[in-house]
Automatic annotation (TrEMBL):
Keywords: Cell cycle, Cell division, Cell shape, Cell wall biogenesis/degradation, Magnesium, Membrane, Metal-binding, Peptidoglycan synthesis, Transferase, Transmembrane, Transmembrane helix. Its cofactor is Mg(2+). Belongs to the glycosyltransferase 4 family. MraY subfamily. NCBIfam families: mraY. It is an enzyme of class 2 (transferase). GO terms for cellular component: plasma membrane. It is found in: Membrane. Its EC number is 2.7.8.13. The chain crosses the membrane at residues 27-45, 51-69, 90-109, 121-139. GO terms for biological process: cell division; cell wall organization; peptidoglycan biosynthetic process; regulation of cell shape. Mg(2+) binds at N146. This is Phospho-N-acetylmuramoyl-pentapeptide-transferase. Pfam families: Glycos_transf_4, MraY_sig1.
Amino acid sequence: FILWAKAKKANQPISSFVPSHQNKKDTPTMGGIVFVFATIVASVLCASLGNLYVLLGIIVLVGFSFVGFRDDYTKINQQNNAGMSAKMKFGMLFVLSLGVSVLLSLKGLDTFLYAPFLKNPLFEMPTMLAVGFWVLVFLSTSNAVNLTDGLDGLASVPSIFTL
């Protein structure tokens, strides 16, 4: 993939306002394609595709990855490191997160709030609060990985924890 990306010049343009990053101008972008492909293949081969939660997980992965791909593709095509607008990215992620969260609530996912290392839930959230909380978790997790990824494209370790 790296050889292909370099041959296609699939590099994120570097802002002229950050001259110290010019040495990273040949770092290929869109490496998430490999990560997503491997995860989907592993899921198809090993996971129970009849399980709603597995399917929703794949939908979230593909949907969020599409937003990232579109952003990277825009950066490469327009030779501009801005990519998609933040409003557009956030809007797409929000709609996907809300849709999946509503599906989870319709399928009866319990709305208890658990804390790490505690056996019993802290309390049960009303359905609307649970949906809002799940949307917040989806958006926060996705954006935390995106911010960690940064220019070097080293998102593999934080991605392991989010998957």
